[in-house]
């Protein structure tokens, strides 16, 4: 969750991929709540894409 927040703050695709990989590793290692971690991975991907779009819009207006 901290990685998700950091990736959203930075708004960079790189941080998003790091969060995605961490969530996938957690999903593989987790005994039962796999769907939770897979959902977090998808959420991190969506949030990073949204954050990247938002930052590119702000950079375009500067």
UniProtKB/TrEMBL annotation:
This is Uncharacterized protein. Keywords: Membrane, Transmembrane, Transmembrane helix. The chain crosses the membrane at residues 6-28, 35-58. It comes from the Eukaryota.
């Amino acid at each position: 969750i901290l990685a998700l927040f950091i990736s959203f703050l930075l708004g960079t695709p790189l941080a998003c991929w790091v969060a995605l990989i961490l969530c996938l590793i957690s999903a593989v290692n987790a005994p039962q709540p796999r769907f939770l971690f897979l959902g977090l991975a998808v959420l991190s991907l969506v949030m990073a894409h949204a954050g990247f779009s938002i930052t590119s819009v702000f950079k375009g207006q500067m």
